[in-house]
Fold this sequence. Notes:
Number of strands: 4
CATH topology of the largest domain: Four Helix Bundle (Hemerythrin (Met), subunit A)
Radius of gyration: 18 Å
Largest sheet: 4 strands, mixed
Structural class: alpha+beta
Amino acid sequence: MPTCLPPAEHLEGLRTALVAFVRYAERAGLAAPVPTCPDWTVRDLIAHQGMVHRWAAATLRGERVDAEAFEREGRDSLDPLEWLRDGSIEFVQAFTDAPPDVAALVFLNDAPPPRAFWARRQCHETTIHAVDALSAALGRAPHGEETWVSRALALDGIDELLAGFLTRRHSRLRSDDPGLLVVAPDDAEEWWEVEVSPEPAVTRRRTAEAAGPPEGDWELTGPATDLYLRLWNRGKEAPLPDWRERAAVTWG
């Protein structure tokens, strides 16, 4: 299964992240730099996140929209945080209105059905960018224990990255010398094996029913929330050399 969390938990994760996002954005101020997103200010961060919420809502409704226009609207808003809240409400309404079998775009490998896919995607999109707002308030990348992110949500987000994003055809996670990346949180029974080669990565999920994590060419361990931040390039240390470039998730 691509995710063990039901959509209701993803929507709750989105709600919790939005509360954190607003709190830390207010604390940092709109002009503050965002250490985890170089070249962005908090206002830029808000404009991006609010655009993504509105774009996701439109996608669930089967509409085509101008994403750049949404982002300009966010940057020009007189009350950017209220504009951000409005976008999240619009997404949740679109999710609520969508039929269970809605035929909407999904763009990751190993994705759940569209309605569940978008709840999951917006949960982690909002969570990661709320961590960015926290970094702006702190003036540095946060530690896992400084965030609100639960172990269950972190495991789900690790899975989305390793199995959904990094296995895509245009992923930059490649190596001329094939090797095995093992990601094994020390506070969970799940772990992942990622085969890295000149071809797109291949990810396999493992559980406690298996023998245990194998030795890999690269091994990552630690609390799930710390690994979530590090793998999504929001931790204080990159998981591997060149990870920030090879595993970056960017808009477009």
